Prior knowledge:
Largest sheet: 7 strands, mixed
Order of helices and strands: EEEHEEEEHEEEHHEHEHEHEHEHEHEHE
Amino acid sequence: MMKSIVCQEPGKLEFSQSKKPSPLAGEVLLKIRCIGVCGTDIHAYGGNQPFFSYPRVLGHELAGEIAELGEGVDLPIGSAAFIVPYLECGECIACRNGKPNCCTNIEVIGVHRDGGMCEYLVVPADHVVITEGVSFEELAIVECLAIGAHAVRRANISEKDTVMVLGAGPIGLGAAQFAQVAGAKTFIADLNDERLAFCDSEFSFDAQIDSKLDVEKQLSTLTNGDMPTVIIDATGSPKAMESTIGWLAHGGTIVFVSVVKADISFHDPEFHKRETTLMGSRNATKEDFEHVVECMRTGKVKSGNMVTHRTSFNDFTKTFPEWVKPDSGVVKAIIEVD
């Protein structure tokens, strides 16, 4: 038997007992060792996560050990690995065009199907990536960083760009770091003074933008009136998303990483006069995951300092309601599974 943490309905987490699963042909059984707590989990708990139904075992930022192999799988037992949690169909137009991250039939572990807040999880072998020399805690953050890396790749950011990332949470911190890796001048913006102070002390972004103040004025001063050529939104705030067009350089690009249950509107003349490129960024691809791991190994991005809170698997149902409070100070939280 094994234990799982189930979100029965918004605001209600419970432990559940079930039979330990066995891998079928082409599958791997992982003993889960570390779980990253993501905005998706927080939104699901709060009842405002799109593409979601209850009850659901949450968790898609996952690291573990290979415990058992299904028929036809040849991987070393006991190896440390992380999971690519996006299960694509391989046949739809998106998959055929090399975009499995936005497959029309996608199933995301912990969203469309039960996830990894459990002691053991079975996943397809081709979604398990063995990675030596990286801690389980760091492996559990790879998926989070890959979301930001994908947004940067979507915008084709280079050293010619000035980038503003809205939202200094884990996704925003990842996007800002990978914008720096691409050579761009990089600003990060947030309403929360503690988050901005954290960015100032832990990272080397070119500037922190206080979103409580006049953002346009701050950006104009920092860019000599040019404004950012790329804005990446990781806030999940419709108001912030709608404001981005007025803060963008002419000829610039906006990338929406956040998914919100809302209609987003903007003033069309402002959009058109800039010849704005507006794009969504969903999930990540294996290429993004590989880029993240390489940057972690070479020290180009920081991951460990993003983790501000930890708890054990057994204590999570008591701890999580405290973490979701606005004054919790959580940047990135990790569940350690014994």
